[in-house]
Amino acid sequence: MTKNWYVIHTYSGYENKVKTNLEKRVESMNMEDKIFRVLVPMEDEIEIKNGKKKIAKRKVFPGYVLVEMDMTDDSWYVVRNTPGVTGFVGTGAKPIPLLDHEVQAILRQMGVEEVRTRVDYSVGQSVRVTSGPFKDFIAIVGEILGDKGKLRVSVSMFGRETPVELDFAQVEKVD
Questions:
Q1: For the chain, where are the alpha helices, taking DSSP H only?
Q2: Spatial separation of the C-alpha atoms in residues 102 and 96, rounded to whole Å
Q3: Residue 118: pLDDT above 60?
Q4: Which of 2.60.120.200, 3.30.1050.10, 1.20.58.480, 2.30.30.30 would CATH assign to domain 125-173?
Q5: What is the mean pLDDT of residues 149-174?
Q6: Residues 6 or more apart from 160 whose CB is under 8 A from it?
Q7: For a surface tag, which of 17, 136, 148, 162 has the fewest beta carbons within 10 Å of its beta carbon?
Q8: Burial zone of 8 (CB within 10 Å; 0-12 exposed, 13-18 middle, 19+ buried)
Q9: Which of 60-64, 110-114, 123-127 has the lowest mean pLDDT?
Q10: What is the signed CA dihedral for 134, 136, 137, 141, rounded to 10 degrees?
Q11: Among residues of the chain, what percentage have pLDDT more than 70?
């Protein structure tokens, strides 16, 4: 099974209706093992009306809906024949899946999925600071804050240990 994200084109303004219809069709046609998630990419937009701040949801890609699915003839048929769907995005008859980094960027923008950072550091390890005020200092990793993408390290300055919080991108391993 190859699970990929595909983009479907819809009638403008019908994105949420297509999402609802497709989810109902997936359930009624027992396609849960082939069609997994349906998303209408949205982002928060701050509107200021009459001096009041209001947060509104705005479609990032009007006229498009994302579908995570295993592309087979059956799953293609279910999606393609959903009311409001005008077709898949791709060349000719073959839909082209989105690349992983494209999907991650969209999901991150929506706040649906956070970036998963692989942590190559361990507590007690020495690292070199590569940017910021402590650039070129050697530090000892004290704590790994993977969910924030940060490390708490100890930098030795003037004979004293100074705790500093740094992004993963601000340090490198010392060989």
A1: 15-28, 73-80, 100-110
A2: 13
A3: no
A4: 2.30.30.30
A5: 87
A6: none
A7: 136
A8: buried
A9: 110-114
A10: 90
A11: 93
